[in-house]
Amino acid sequence: MSKGGSKSGKGKNAKKKQTVSDRKQVNYKLVLSETCRVCKTPCARGMNYLARMQEPGAVGKGVPCILTKTYG
């Protein structure tokens, strides 16, 4: 026999499980090589993208900037 009775999780100390849709999602802005060129805090990803865009004929759509992180 158990002591204390049943614990169904409906008491005042029950934690609500967080579903996938309730979690905060991280969003980054896409920046072009010109933005990376004048950035005050350059990152490795941005500098690699800038170097690739210096090649003749390079086509790029931007790189996610870690400095523009927002939670949505």
Short description:
The protein is α+β, with helices and mostly antiparallel strands. It contains 2 helices and 4 strands.
Structure description:
The protein has two helices and four strands; from the N terminus they run E-E-H-H-E-E. It is of the alpha+beta class and 72 residues long. The radius of gyration is 24 Å and the shape is rod-shaped.
As a percent range, the share of strand residues is 5-15%
The assigned structural class equals alpha+beta
- For the largest sheet, list the strands in their spatial order: 1-4
Question: What is the percent of helical residues?
Answer: 10-25%
**Quick one: biggest sheet?**
2 strands, antiparallel
pLDDT average, as an integer?
A: 86
Q: Compute the number of helices.
A: 2
**What string gives the helices and strands in order?**
EEHHEE
Topology of this structure?
Elements lengths: L25 E2 L2 E2 L1 H5 L6 H10 L9 E2 L5 E2 L1
Antiparallel strand pairs: 1-4, 2-3
Features:
two-stranded antiparallel ribbon; 4 strands; 11% strand
